[in-house]
């Protein structure tokens, strides 16, 4: 029996195969150029705490895997800076939520965007990696590619974006993926279904796993410990005069100032409602690695309705231990 393969039955159109070949050639070109220069230059940008975590792990892995010395430049938080990044400006400058929150900061946003583009062009990276923060990241990659064409720059950087857009969150979201291939050479996806959908819409993509899976391999996520066994920067529950039989709730108000300003008062009202039914209620307030958030929570701490301990960021095991003593 003979089968006629029509264009509609092809899982991937010819253009997708062409892009795959081009992506392979681009990766090979990066290695060749870096070898000639004697180093691999990576311009990496993250605009929020979760991206700082992902970016720092990526930087650590690149250091282990690269046969060449690596030099980083770009924008990131404290975790990425610990891995060797000298951030152009504080990552918090990019952590703005939503259209309405962005409007008052629009001029500053444009200034930071131009500063980042100029720094990237001057750095002459072999690779540009943006992590999440799609509003800033996609604008950066798009304008960088336009700058390459405008100045007819040779040896243009290969663009990677880590964390695919949440196209599955809205109806018809997949249709918006096609335009990404104009300025994104490869997507790193954290959900398994995303790779296939991205490829079907002409965007090179690879499923690399969710960050929490790395946590599971590195840390004990299900360890249960008693409240008095939890150590917070050397301070235990007993040192805070909190009974060991306390009812403990972890509070996670967010990592960006706008969401913390919105969520922390709601959590505070909830704790007031729970205060009488649970007389030994204690809250563990998780503080993101964001100076603005840290300052805001610190100022609000004195008015918190029940005993509380601030859980600092920076230690993943500490975070999961705090979850372990919570309800």
Automatic annotation (TrEMBL):
UniProt xrefs under Pfam families: LpxB
Signal sequence coordinates: none
Catalytic activity: a lipid X + a UDP-2-N,3-O-bis[(3R)-3-hydroxyacyl]-alpha-D-glucosamine = a lipid A disaccharide + UDP + H(+)
Biological process per Gene Ontology, one example term: lipid A biosynthetic process
Enzyme nomenclature, EC number: 2.4.1.182
Domain of life: Eukaryota
Keywords assigned by UniProt, alphabetized: Glycosyltransferase, Lipid A biosynthesis, Lipid biosynthesis, Lipid metabolism, Transferase
GO MF, one example: phospholipid binding
This protein's GO CC annotations: membrane
Keyword Lipid metabolism: yes
Protein name (database record): lipid-A-disaccharide synthase
């Amino acid at each position: 029996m003979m089968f006629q393969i029509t264009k509609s039955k092809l899982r991937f159109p010819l253009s997708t195969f062409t892009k795959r070949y081009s992506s392979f050639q681009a990766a090979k070109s990066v290695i060749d150029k870096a070898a000639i220069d004697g180093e691999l230059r990576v311009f990496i940008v993250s605009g929020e705490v979760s991206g700082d975590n992902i970016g720092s792990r990526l930087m650590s892995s690149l250091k282990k895997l690269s046969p060449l010395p690596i030099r980083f430049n770009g924008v990131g938080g404290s975790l990425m800076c610990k891995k060797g990044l000298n951030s152009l400006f504080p990552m918090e400058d990019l952590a703005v939520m939503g259209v309405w929150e962005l409007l008052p900061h629009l001029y500053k946003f444009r200034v930071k965007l131009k500063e980042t583009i100029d720094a990237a062009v001057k750095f002459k990276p072999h690779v540009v990696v943006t992590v999440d923060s799609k509003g800033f990241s996609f604008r950066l990659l798009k304008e960088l590619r336009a700058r390459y064409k405008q100045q007819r720059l040779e040896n243009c950087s290969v663009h990677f974006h880590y964390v695919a857009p949440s196209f599955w969150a809205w109806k018809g979201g997949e249709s918006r993926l096609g335009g990404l291939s104009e300025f994104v050479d490869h997507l790193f996806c954290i959900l398994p279904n995303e790779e296939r959908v991205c490829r079907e819409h002409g965007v090179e993509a690879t499923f690399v796993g969710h960050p929490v899976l790395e946590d599971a391999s590195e840390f004990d996520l299900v360890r249960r410990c008693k409240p008095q066994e939890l150590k917070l920067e050397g301070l235990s529950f007993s040192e805070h005069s909190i009974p060991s039989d306390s009812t403990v709730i972890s509070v996670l108000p967010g990592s960006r100032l706008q969401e913390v300003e919105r969520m922390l008062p709601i959590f505070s009202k909830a704790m007031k409602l729970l205060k009488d039914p649970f007389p030994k209620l204690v809250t563990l307030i998780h503080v993101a690695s964001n100076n603005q958030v840290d300052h805001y929570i610190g100022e609000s701490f004195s008015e918190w309705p029940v005993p509380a301990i601030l859980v600092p960021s920076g230690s993943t095991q500490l975070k999961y231990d705090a979850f372990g003593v919570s309800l």
